[in-house]
Write a structure and sequence with these properties.
Elements (H helix, E strand, L loop, with lengths): L16 H9 L2 H12 L3 H30 L10 H15 L8 H16 L8 H24 L1
Helix pairs in contact: 1-2, 2-3
């Protein structure tokens, strides 16, 4: 009546929406703990169920990517979930795309670029920067309080 394999499989493979959301957001530890507590199963069983769900989710995403890529004419080898291969390819692409700039420019080049962007937008620099105005207001208030205290206690 019962197979020997059926005892190792969970009876309820459907996960709660809250647990699915935790898995999709990458909060796996909380998802495992919640599933184990909700269904009164061991942590290992909860982990295996969540791993199975993750695998099916990744497979669905891969299928969706393949169908979209086929519709757009992109070969399916263009994208891959193999992290090492993707990392090597991304480093190669970055090295080929990055424009080299002299390191002497540094802050001065950044400041000139920002100034030119602000000029293009029609921004005019204020006569006094905001932080100078703030310090001036604080100094005036402190001088006023000092003068009041001097008149009262002096």
């Amino acid at each position: 009546m019962f197979d020997s394999d059926s005892s190792s499989k969970p009876t309820n493979t459907k996960l709660l929406k809250a647990i699915i959301m935790m898995v999709e957001k990458g909060n796996l530890v909380m998802a495992i703990k919640t599933l184990a507590a909700d269904e009164n199963i061991s942590m290992d069983a909860a982990k295996s169920r969540i791993d199975a769900y993750e695998l099916t989710l990744k497979n669905k995403q891969q299928l969706q990517l393949n169908t979209i890529a086929n519709k757009q004419g992109i070969p399916s080898q263009a994208f891959n979930f193999d992290r090492k291969q993707v990392k090597d390819e991304s480093e190669r692409l970055i090295k080929s795309r990055v424009k080299t700039t002299p390191s002497e420019q540094g802050f001065q080049g950044l400041q000139e670029g920002l100034d030119s962007q602000l000029n293009d937008l029609g921004y005019k620099k204020p006569l006094l920067p905001y932080w100078v105005k703030r310090l001036l207001v604080i100094a005036i208030i402190m001088a006023g309080l000092f003068w009041i205290m001097w008149r009262i206690f002096g």
